[in-house]
Specification:
With about 230 residues, the chain is α+β, with helices and mostly antiparallel strands. The protein is built from eight helices and nine strands. The longest helix is centred in the first third of the chain and has 21 residues.
Amino acid sequence: MKKFLLLTLVVSLCSFSLAADDQPKESKAADRVQAAADVLNEIQGAPDAGIPQEVLGSAECVAVVPSMLKGGFIVGGKYGRGLASCRTPKGWSAPAFFTVTGGSFGFQIGGQAVDLVMLIMNKDGMKHLLTSEFALGADASVAAGPVGRHAEGNTDWKMRAEVLTYSRARGLFAGITLNGAVIKQDKDSTREFYGRMVPFKTSLTGEIEPSPAANSFLTTLAKWAQEAAK
């Protein structure tokens, strides 16, 4: 029975992915850039919730997955596509496109799309990100991020996790854990956006200049990071 449910979920996730791929190709990556900017603006613009300023101000990299699919009945699964940017001496880097996939066993019923935000908090976490593929919880330590305008003296996030994760669903914003989720370079979106393959390290360390098509996300990220640094 469990194998049948797992197979059903995998088929559903694959169908979701193929449906997304049926969109006009030239618009998918650009739409994701704008959607990621909208997610950051909506989360950080909320009056009583959001990523604490101390946390965002300390992050080495910020990754956003708009509308990540979560689904499950007994077996839970996750699939999404997003983009990341890291701090460089020139400002925030050109975006790197990635996929996040993973599954967990547990009592889950129903499915929903959630917005996912991941903050890479230190150099060790950034090293994992630059490899273009790593597993949260196995290769890089991960924890639910604190929520609110300020971290209120909670310093655990400074000492423990390389990656802090957040989700927003149905208007509710909270820290979540994503143990076992795998982050991989999204090669199709990378080629679509840049016209060629660009390794994570090339884009995220500032070796290439950001495309004007990335401005909406990078401008939004710079605005909130600057606000957090005040």
